[in-house]
């Protein structure tokens, strides 16, 4: 996934579920996108790792507080999708 690729909300959410599941050593089917990162067991180290993965994979710069600003996978995927659309419109 890169910024130049059209990313669907569902595709981004699926990718985030996969990332969080891998950090927590869970089956992706065990990760509820509506559950808060804290309740899933994602600590601050993993939250910062997720931020770095997002930057590397999507090619966008995000705030290190992203997981606190958008406390669920569902909210994060919606926020990232909106940010990427806005970034493409300014290019």
Short description, anyone?
The protein is mostly helical and 91 residues long. It is built from five helices and no strands.
What do these coordinates show?
This protein is mainly alpha-helical and 91 residues long. 63% of the residues lie in helices and 0% in strands. It has 5 helices and no strands. It has helices spanning 9-24, 37-40, 44-58, 66-69, 73-90. 16% of the residues are buried. Residues 1-5 have low confidence and may be disordered.
Task: Write down how many β-strands occur, each being a DSSP E stretch of 2 or more residues.
Answer: 0
- How would the global form be characterised? globular
Note the total helix count. 5
Percentage of helical residues? Answer: 55-70%
Largest sheet, if any? none
The low-pLDDT segments are 1-5
* N-to-C span: 18 Å
- What's the SSE pattern? HHHHH
Mean pLDDT, all residues: 88
Strand proportion: under 5%
Structural class determined from secondary elements: mainly alpha
Using only CA atoms, what is the Rg? 12 Å
């Amino acid at each position: 996934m890169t910024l130049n690729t059209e990313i669907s909300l569902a595709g981004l959410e699926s990718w985030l579920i996969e990332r969080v599941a891998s950090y927590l050593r869970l089956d992706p089917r065990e990760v509820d996108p509506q559950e808060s990162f804290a309740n899933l067991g994602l600590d601050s180290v993993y939250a910062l790792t997720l931020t770095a993965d997002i930057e590397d994979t999507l090619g966008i710069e995000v705030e290190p507080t992203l997981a606190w600003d958008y406390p669920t996978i569902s909210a994060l995927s919606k926020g990232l999708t909106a940010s990427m659309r806005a970034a493409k419109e300014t290019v």
